[in-house]
Design a protein that fits this description.
The chain has eight helices and twelve strands. It is of the alpha/beta class. Helix 1 packs parallel to helix 3 and helix 6 packs parallel to helix 8.
Length: 261
Amino acid sequence: MTPSFAFFATPDAPSPPSLLSELPTVTDSVQLSGYHGYFYYDTQDQEPRLSFSAMLDGASASFHLDFTKGKVAYRRQHGGGRKQHIAKACGLKHNWQPGILDATAGLGRDAAGLRGLGCSLRLIERSPFVASLLEDAIRRAAQSQPELYADHFELYQGQASQLIKQLSTKTQADIIYLDPMFPPRNKSAAVKKEMRLVKLLVGEDQDADQLLPTALEYAKYRVVVKRPSYAPYLNEQKPSMSIESKGNRFDVYIIGSPHQL
C-alpha cells in the first residue's frame, strides 16, 4: 500500500510549499488519523519551520531539517575541516573549491557540510516530500547564514538519472556525490526513528546501482559514493580507492585531476 500524507493547516500558518500542493489540506486534527503522516508548520525562533509527523509504535514522532543548528553546526565547528574523511574523498586540498553535484541529497547534511568547506553545491532529491523539507531548511539557512546558503547551494527535485544529464549541459560537476539509502545497522532510537520516517516518505531505493554509470559519464574529476562499511560496492564496481570512517566508507572513482590529487 502506498502511504498517504496530508498537510495540516494550523491557524496563521503559511500555505503549503509548492512541492506539497497536491496533498490534501486538513484543518481538523481529528482527520489526520486517516493518513500515514502529515506535514505542518511549527515555530522556531519566531519563524515558520516545516516538519513531518507520523505515528511510530503507537507514539507520535516528527522531524525537520536544519543546517544552522544541531548536527550540521556541530560538525562545521568541531568536525575537523578538510581533514574529514568526506573532504579527503572529494580531494579538498590545495584550496580547491569544487562544484559538487549531490545526486542523492536525502537529508542534505553531507551537502551542508561540504558547503561549509567552501564547495559549491547542487542538490538533487527525487522525493517531493523530502525535497520540501530540504527547500524549507535552505530557505531558513539562507536567512540566518546568507554567506553559506544564499548562493551556491541549489536544490532540484526530480529523478537523478535525468537531472544529472540536464544539469551537466549547463555546468559540468567537478564531483558527483552519491549516498543512496541503505538499511542501517545502527539501532539507536534516534537513528531508527528518523530513518523510519524518511523511509516512510521515500519508499525503497531500488535503482541506486544504475546511478553510478551515469555519474561516471558526467562527472569531470571524480565520483564519490558513501556506503555503510558492510555494504557491497555500488553496481559491484570496484573504486579507485576507498576511505574508511566510523561505520561508513567513501568509495572514490577518479576520472581526472585538476591538480595532483
